[in-house]
Amino acid sequence: MERRVFSVVALLSLFLLLAACAPDREEVTSEQDTNSEGTAEKPEELTIWANDEEKQLEAIKKIAADYEEQEGIKVNVVPKSMLDQVQELSLAGPEGNGPDLFYQPHDQLGTIVAQGLAEPLNISDEELSGYSDVAVEAVSYKYNGETAIYGVPSVLETYGVFYNKDIISKAPETIEDLKTILEKHTNPAKDEYGFLMKPNDLYFAYPFFKNYGGYIFGGETGEFDTTDIGLNNEGAVEGGKLFQSFFGSEKIPPGTTADVVDGLFTAGKVGAVINGPWSITGYKEAIGDSLGFAPFPEINGEPGKTLVGVKSWMVSYYSENKDWAQDLALFMTNEENQKYYFEVAGEMPTNTNALESIEDPIYNAFAEQVKYGVPMPSTPQMSQVWEPMNNALQFIAEGENVQAVLDEAVRQIKTKIQASGASQ
Amino acid sequence: MILSILFAGLGQLYNRRFMKGFTFIIVELAFIVTLLESINYGLWGLRTLGTIPGVDHSIRLLVFGVLSLIGVFFALSLYIYNVVDARNQARKIQNGWKPMGFRESMRTFYDHAFPYLMTFPGLVLMIFVVIFPLLFSVLLAFTNYNLYNSPPRNLVDWVGFENFVNLATVPIWQDTFVSVFSWTIVWTVVATTLQIGLGLFLALLVNDPRIKFKKLIRTILILPWAVPAFVTILIFSAMFNDDFGAINKDIIMPLFGGDGLPWLSDPFYARVAIIMVQTWLGFPFIFALFTGVLQSISKDWYEAADVDGGSRFQKFRHITLPHVMFATAPLLIMQYAQNFNNFNVIYLFNEGGPPVRGQNAGGTDILISWVYKLTFDTNNYSMAAAISIIMGLFVSGFAFYQFRRTRSFKEEGEI
Fold it and tell me: Where does the record place the ABC transmembrane type-1 domain (chain B) (predicted)?
């Protein structure tokens, strides 16, 4: 008896599982009723997700208020950490709770596009001409054979050499200068170093490879060929050897960490370090007017080609007012507003006129450096590159064979890309 | 009985239990009206994980699916209860039993079921806080959820045991998994045993009647526990730095000369260092625990031992140790389980480093920190879920075995 009850129940539940059938859904086509002439109906309000840092928010709120006044569209500025935005959008977007605009660094582009979260923009060439070339390059991306621009660039970031004028009188112009400084001013017993950099960071070490012909992925920016990795070619090995020559006893200790670099530099014990604009405030507070900044030294007779990061406004795929969202993004990054944003938030503008109008010598040098910058690769595969390469750099700094280490790193990157499930 | 199978409550009505019958009917009707559609949708989603990319969000469907499974489970158990109940009653009536009146049966029900009634909210909470995420991550291990099939743009599919097979066969997973797994076990056993040993040793010392300033010593020994662990770990991490850390610069180099030990760059030394850090962090708890238990051992035992001429070691071996272990075994087991998944120490100390050539986890990475890296660097969620399952099975198997053998968890009278 008992058994029969259960068999009936079991049958019933199986039946339930099989009978579970597809609900009726309308097939939503991605083409929405956006007007091609850009005269889509004016919405009442737009929502944007801004990074939740105090200064940045303050600037964005003011700019949004200006837009409200000009166009009569209410702009809701929602503070949301940049790091959380992508994940939250992928959940909130389909529910209709997402923003119209969100704010992301361009190296997330591949991930964002793979998840279908950002809408390709149609910005005219004339509008694009206002931005630095490297910024526009950074926000374009190829997906399914079509290259498009996915973001309105807003902020530029790169790095160069900070130096302490009390220790070295003249900024290093070539990498050889930098090495001379290192050898002349280093005294490990007293924790004094002519030059310090963290060994295990591809971001900062990139010019060593690039200037000799190494590269991360082949192909053009935004249209990368991720099967072609150039980090162990002849040039990369040569750069790696140069990199290696900076480490060892009486030189940079391979155990150097970011904390050590910042700690010793702000204590006035280091001649020069490599860092980006985010550390200007801290360094200025610590060593004041002695702080100098120079573009990345020349390597192999060319200016150091540093990696550039671009933060941009992206239009959500789920936005109902894509044209106006784009319009708002363009408004927020026009010359006047970028100048204002720089003054308040201290982040470097992408707008060329705004960039050139900055009078601070440190930022001027950064603007100079941006000209030689290379956008960070934006494909999702890039996230598999960092760790093996950072580890390889650590091994190189510890004195292991450059060619062998780089070969191994590249092999590992390839298997990691495969293991992460990339089909392309 | 057949009536009950057809529709809940009919059997009870047939048995002339009108109140009960109507309640069942109402419950089933409510169930059908409100939940059937969403459960159907959930089960459909669970089976297919969506069919139209960009419209169906596979992960949300998976969540709905799990919820509906739980709903179905509830409904089924109610339903079975209803059928069994009807049959029992029918049998009782056949045997000449008279049903009680409504009020009376309510009272017996209340008396009988009070403990169940009280634990019910806890049960519901557990279902959503423990069972639901557990089911979700177990199911995730059988999908191909990674960045390139991420919803909303793409769909996630069921792939069966592919992840587990990959873990065992694809070289990059295989090599790393074996070495990480073995280090995890070494780490768990050595670090936990050391902290327990040290704690016990210190507790015994401080409890010796000849020791003065007990309170002061105890306070000092408990201090490492009072400082938040992550602060301690970060400080240790700086102190162990090869080139700039205090341990090499101020202790080893002046005393022994040389260049100091490669604490952070050599896997072996990094492992030694991290085990020492964990011992430092863990012993105060064990120390406090044992100190408490030691107070409760009756002095008579020791006096009796003295009369018999027992040595100091014999007294420890046959009186102190069994007492202490009997009272604390479950907590000690928890220590092992906790260290098996001690993400904080590993990650904050040097992020699982140093790098090891030819494998994709660092020298001190234990399974949990490796899974963390996988999920956030590689976005390979399904593989991370697969490894988590293996970890979960291991820990629960271990804990289950130990709990069964621990007397403290035996029910009364079974000792």
Answer: 181-402
